[in-house]
């Protein structure tokens, strides 16, 4: 099962969601591979991965195989990234194939779940992730700007389904950085439910300082502070995610 975590905006909890979904899956005895497909490398940094020789760029260029580049953290296998990923996308004379990542992952057989942390843009790398995926998780903040962003994501997913990956489905929209005291939070959730034909997870990731602290220690919030609201929220979300992907498979 391959899941892309996608949002074209930065600061939406995308990387935090990818990290903690993977961490929660491992705690449910699943074998998990995480692909850091964001050239900024926030996911790699979040798990304290800085000293490595090979990255996902080497796998995409067919210089290395996935098992040769992975770094283990918290029981998760991570394919880290570096700045060469940007050069791969923008520094080549010819357009990179939308199936580059799909072809690499087809050779990977030992994982129950593959989680892809996409770049915060609708780029060729994002198209690669969507072309390789079975489904997507869309983390959104519950504000008015996220509505416009969700519309753009839905359009992109529909374009990918029609052109590159007919099997691609949406596992659901995940509300993140939620402050339940705000009236706008309830209004945005209701608007999404009424206006988008998409599953919105009942699980919500509440705003919590522990989630912001965890990357500084190179850990998921589930590892860093398992009793925190964020850790509990992500564990609850993981259970709902498993039910959702089973339903749409």
Give your account of this protein's structure:
The protein has 249 residues and is α/β, with parallel strands linked by helices. The chain has a single domain, classed as Rossmann fold, CATH 3.40.50.300. It contains twelve helices and seven strands. Strand 6, helix 8 (144-163) and strand 7 form a beta-alpha-beta unit. Helix 1 crosses helix 12 (229-248). The mean pLDDT is 90.
Give the gist of this structure.
With 249 residues, the protein is of the alpha/beta class.
Give a quick set of tags describing it.
12 helices; Rossmann fold; 249 residues; alpha/beta
Report strand %: 5-15%
CATH homology-level superfamily: P-loop containing nucleotide triphosphate hydrolases
> What's the main sheet like?
7 strands, mixed
The CATH class label is: Alpha Beta
């Amino acid at each position: 099962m391959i899941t892309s975590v996608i949002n074209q905006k930065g600061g939406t909890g995308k990387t935090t969601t990818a990290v903690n979904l993977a961490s929660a899956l491992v705690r449910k005895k699943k074998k998990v591979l995480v692909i850091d497909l964001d050239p900024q490398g926030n996911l790699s940094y979040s798990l304290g991965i800085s000293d490595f020789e090979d990255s996902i760029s080497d796998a995409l260029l067919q210089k290395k195989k996935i098992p040769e580049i992975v770094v283990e953290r918290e029981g998760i296998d991570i394919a880290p990234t570096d700045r060469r990923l940007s050069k791969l996308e923008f520094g080549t004379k010819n357009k990179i194939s939308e199936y580059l990542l799909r072809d690499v992952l087809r050779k990977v057989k030992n994982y129950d779940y593959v989680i892809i942390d996409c770049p915060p843009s609708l780029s060729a790398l994002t198209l690669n992730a969507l072309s390789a995926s079975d489904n997507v998780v869309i983390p959104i903040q519950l504000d008015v700007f996220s509505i416009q962003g969700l519309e753009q994501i839905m359009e992109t997913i529909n374009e990918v389904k029609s052109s590159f990956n007919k099997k691609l489905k949406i596992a659901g929209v995940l509300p993140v950085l939620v402050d339940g005291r705000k009236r706008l939070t309830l209004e945005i959730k209701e608007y999404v439910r009424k206006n988008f034909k998409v599953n919105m997870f009942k699980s919500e990731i509440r705003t919590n300082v522990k989630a912001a602290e965890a990357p500084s220690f190179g850990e998921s919030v589930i590892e860093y502070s398992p009793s925190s609201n964020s850790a509990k929220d992500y564990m609850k979300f993981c259970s709902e995610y498993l039910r959702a992907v089973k339903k749409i498979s």
